[in-house]
Design goal:
492 residues; mainly beta; 2 helices; six-stranded antiparallel beta sheet; 33 strands
Amino acid sequence: MAHFPDTPSFTGFNTPSRVEADIVDMDYEGEIPSGLNGAFYRVQPDPQFPPRLGDDIAFNGDGMVTRFHIHDGQCDFRQRWAHTNKWKLEREAGKGLFGAYRNPLTDDESVKGEIRSTANTNAFPFAGKLWAMKEDSPALLMDPVTMETIGFEKFGGKMTGETFTAHPKIDPKTGNMVAIGYAASGLCTDDVTYYEISPEGELVREIWFKVPYYCMMHDFGITEDYLVLHIVPSIGSWERLEQGLPHFGFDTTMPVYLGIIPRRDGVTDADIRWFKRDNCFASHVLNAWQEGSKIHFIVPEAKNNMFPFFPDVHGAPFNGREAMSHLTDWVVDMESNSEEFDAIIPLTQTASEFPRIDDRFAGVKTRYGWGLEMDMKRPVELKGGSAGGLLMNCLFLKDLETGAEQHWWCGPVSSLQEPCFIPRSADAPEGDGWIVQICNRLEDHVSDLLIFEALNIEQGPVATIHIPIRMRFGLHGNWVDADKIGLEPVAA
């Protein structure tokens, strides 16, 4: 019998869902834009079985992938497990076999050496496939129409690294997917791979390089000429794993680095510039771009660690106030002979995370950014449904050109999940389109899919689609037009 622990990761809104479902033409309020014809994919960690060690962090749940197929003014729903090696082996055994988050020392002997991916971090449509991603392993491919699992992608053996990012970027000029893999030669190693994959899904570049120290490298940026990688001390080691500590811990005494890696063949460690600054926390990336010799890299920056489940390595308690992050522009000058940053520029007083742009402009100067705001001045009656523990209760739009901001509050008994931008058309101006995101209805234990006019979020959603089951907190998701994957409406 399944008995999940009575802990925050497994109770309340985070109670495991474990539901696969198909729903045609969901109930909604407002008007679903008739111009929308495609699919919004997202993924949530959703444990198939109770944790092997009695408790676990929420980030270690199995990948459950959701598709919202929006067409003809309606929305259809499909949800399926990502059938990783872990999922299949545990399904066969009828219990959890893999132990703590990124600690193979805690696994059952029967699964030693298996790929540990949960495929629970991003659902990314590319090259006619759906990529279910977890950054400690290769990407898992799924069929975007049937949502059946195909298998792990190693590009016919051309990929020699062990890992693949959960935050790829698409170069708008070439159509290539740009990716990294950290701990590429094995757990806790300082080897990183840089990959480029063609629009047809072929691996066309793999470059190995070293980083200043091993840490979580969850996201990165690209420009036309460079891959831009920040090294922030959410550090890990085999010593921590052997002691049974969480894989990552934050070290407030270590510096932060920004690596500028040329996007070309034949790159060696000597070709990489490393710039250095004082300690801070930054995980996700809004965007990066070049202006002359200067590179801009915009991140939500916090003074201290945002992840309470990856605690301070020196024993300091989690500091919620210092964990609040604000969009910040890191600027480095490639003509400088120094390793110092050229500038660190705060862009807003609004605390936010999960930043998104109009992805058609990745790597070039952008005007608009959306994210999840943490507004502690708003009334709160219920908390929950958050990926990191902080209350994310507003949708936030930042105009980087004028400085203007818009905010939309979801109310005192709800919270929000990551937004995703959908362009009105392939050649629409930047920001012309819609935002989709899930809203957690914490009181009723259900969820809604919200659709906003992207540049007028303050007017509220133009459509609210009612999902009759609860969406656990999700991490990342993306949109694809229906014709790119051959997605046809399902007859009711």
